[in-house]
Amino acid sequence: MTDRISTGNPGLDLILSGGLPRNRLYLLEGAPGSGKTTLALQFLLDGASKGEPTLYITLSETSEELRAVATSHDWSLAGVELFELASAEEVLGPGREQTVLHSWEVELGDTIKLIEDVVERVKPTRVVFDSLSEMRLLAQDPLRYRRQVLALKQFFVGRNATVLLVDDLTSNGGERDTHLHSLCHGVITLERLTLDFGSSRRRLQVQKLRGVDFIAGYHDLAIRKGGLAVFPRLIAADHDGSFVGDPVSSGVDALDALLGGGPLRGTCTLITGPAGTGKTTIALQYLYAACERGEPSTIYQFDERIGTLMIRAQAMGLDLQKHVDSGLLVIRQADPAEMSPGEFAALVRAQVEQRGCRLLTIDSLNGYMAAMPQEQHLLLQMHELLAYLNLKGVMTLLINPQHGLVGTMSGTLEISYIADALVLLRFFESEGRLRKAISVLKNRSGAHEDTIRELRVDSQGIRVGDPLREFKGVLTGTPEYIGSAHPLMEDR
């Protein structure tokens, strides 16, 4: 169908491939607090902004409550006609005292008649009916309720109105009404999830939409000032792109040599090792070199504070602040307790598509994992995100902390398989000092060194030494010295 009507929400319109087919009946369902009223108001306000007559029929909330919701988003309902059943007397009239018919039969019949009268008067092109739970209670009998809903659908046929029926599921024991699903042209479900810690998560799913190729599955959303922020699920295959594939230099020749000149654009490099080995420092070196070349870069910090990061970079002689001031470098502090994975993917897309980001760093994957309720979802979403970045020619650096200091290391995630290059950092003991070693375990995009070299990070920046040929068992943390020379680097 080509004749579409916007929902008033850009993210939802993207999921629906442009919006809702016009002049149809739709169901918007979800538990209280999931964002139904906010989305319904966005739908009507979009129509009002285009000069369309709109109508909000409320059986559950008062007009004052609706205006309070609108005020919280800085909205004005001046262009929206509000109709509420303010009192029982208005609905029941003189028939409420009679005894021949059950009172609920009179209530429901008069309620439907009032709704039909106001629709004939306003002649709206967009209608919100909030909520079906009240009608279900008035009907008492399921068969009578379904007949009335069908009658409402038939009433709107030919009246050039797109109708949104809201159901909060409270009068149905929290269960979805499958009859309504078959009756409506489309069904949109909102959910609110409470995690063990942090803010609640909200998500959206289009259950069905006849004649439209929509994006299926769950999509994260958040209620913000100004309405619902919907983050469509990222599907890498939907994004065409190409990249040159040239090496990305860190500005340190010895470091670049480990990866045959540097990681290639459109690839992902995983830097893994225990805390304190220099994972973030190496990432900062790549970011600084990219900014020096005039390439927009971004780092998302899940663990370390931005102030600490800047102090560390300054101690290495890297002036990140000048690139932050120029706009070439964006440093974002990410709070996993408040950010959903869908929102994070949307932020990354904005950096790539709006800023032209060429180098992206995520520090660290442990912090990113904290934003996920289940680990398997992390691997799937990270795979899609990396595939998208690869298609866009972005060089990605992932920081993956491991448990332990020396000897056998372990991590909470087995994610190395999705990386194109894997850089391993280790502590080892020698001459009464704790030293660092660096090696490259794999590089899908080209050749790499198979040597183990010493790594030093000091006021001179990053230094990579000669291969540790005089040692055996460096990766165990307690190597054996088998040479006669002194191969280690000294302080400067």
UniProtKB/TrEMBL annotation:
Q: Which residues form the signal peptide?
A: none
Cross-referenced InterPro entries, in alphabetical order?
AAA+_ATPase (IPR003593), Circadian_clock_KaiC-rel (IPR051347), KaiC (IPR030665), KaiC-like_dom (IPR014774), KaiC_dom (IPR010624), P-loop_NTPase (IPR027417)
The record's keywords, sorted A to Z, are: Hydrolase, Kinase, Phosphoprotein, Repeat, Transferase
So what EC number does this one have? Answer: 2.7.11.1
Which segments does the entry list as coiled coil?
A: none
Domain called KaiC: residue spans:
3-244, 246-478
Record-linked PROSITE patterns: KAIC
What Pfam families is this protein classified in?
Answer: ATPase
SUPFAM superfamilies to which the protein is assigned, alphabetical: P-loop containing nucleoside triphosphate hydrolases
- CDD domains in alphabetical order: KaiC-like_N
Q: Work out whether the entry's keyword set contains Repeat.
A: yes
Q: Which domain of life is it from?
A: Bacteria
Name this polypeptide is given: non-specific serine/threonine protein kinase
